[in-house]
Design goal:
Layout: H1 23-28, H2 38-47, E1 49-53, E2 58-60, E3 68-74, E4 77-82, E5 88-94, E6 99-100, H3 102-107, E7 114-117, E8 121-127, H4 128-137, H5 140-165, H6 168-183, E9 187-189, H7 194-200, H8 205-217, E10 221-224, E11 227-230
Antiparallel strand pairs: 1-8, 2-7, 3-6, 3-8, 4-5, 4-7, 9-11, 10-11
Helix pairs in contact: 6-8, 7-8
Length: about 240
């Protein structure tokens, strides 16, 4: 497995992550709606209601009855599951173009996780009743949603297997390489606070800090706060060898 590939299941982005100005444009870049005709896109767009949320706002909560399907237009979310012992497990990052709440809305089961904004965000949502009506009118939507649900479950299992097989330093190095590959740049700001990144990588903030220090001391990166500079790109793969 290439070290430059993003960690399995870590991000649901289906586009470049650029914000979308309107619902129809976002739908055209989403696998569920992207193949619909202009007329069909208009039908779907009419059912969406656009809203905005500040940073650290919960949009849907684990255990709630499913009432709406969501489409992120701008900003960033984390998809979080709370364990019985109180631990918070970050399942995915969500970027513009991501649809969430699918399985619960389709199966009429409580939301399996909570969605929190990591930054100020714009999103569109549709009632469960409207979605079921559209599926009856456009059966292809159901097929696309089932495909995404299956892929999400598979990627989540791959991520669990990956994190159980590799130490935190390996995970961080691979995450940084994935960021480099997607951004095509040697300098960027971490997409989230380090405490959130630790949860995403399945480790503690203290361990993550030690990993950053190790990469810094080895000359692979230079990090100040959330600003990351890749100093020796060829050095990073050495930390994610099996």
């Amino acid at each position: 497995m290439s070290c430059y590939r993003i960690i399995p299941g870590i991000c649901s982005c289906q586009s470049s992550g650029v914000a979308f100005a309107d619902v129809k444009t976002a739908m055209k870049h989403n696998r569920i709606f992207g193949d619909l005709s202009e007329e069909e896109l208009n039908w779907v767009e009419e059912k969406f209601v656009v809203s905005k949320a500040p940073k650290q706002k919960i949009l849907l909560e684990q255990g709630q009855s499913p009432v709406r399907l969501y489409l992120l237009l701008a900003g960033q979310l984390k998809w979080v599951q709370y364990m019985a012992d109180g631990r918070e497990v970050v399942l995915q990052l969500m970027c513009p173009g991501s649809v969430f709440g699918i399985s619960s809305v389709i199966l009429d089961t409580p939301y399996q996780a909570s969605a929190w904004t990591l930054r100020a965000s714009h999103y569109a949502s549709m009632s469960r009743e409207d979605l079921l009506g559209l599926i009856e009118k456009l059966p292809v939507l159901s097929m696309r949603m089932m495909e995404l649900m299956a892929e999400y479950n598979e990627s989540l299992m791959q991520r669990i297997e990956y994190q159980s097989a590799h130490p935190p330093l390996h995970r961080l190095a691979r995450f940084l390489l994935g960021q480099y590959e997607s951004r095509k740049a040697n300098h960027w700001k971490l997409p989230m606070p380090k405490a959130e990144l630790a949860k995403l990588l399945g480790t503690t903030p203290e361990t993550l800090s030690r990993c950053f220090t190790e990469l810094n001391q080895q000359g692979a990166i230079n990090i100040k706060g959330r600003d990351v500079h890749i100093m020796r790109l060829k050095k990073l793969p050495e930390f994610c060898q099996d």
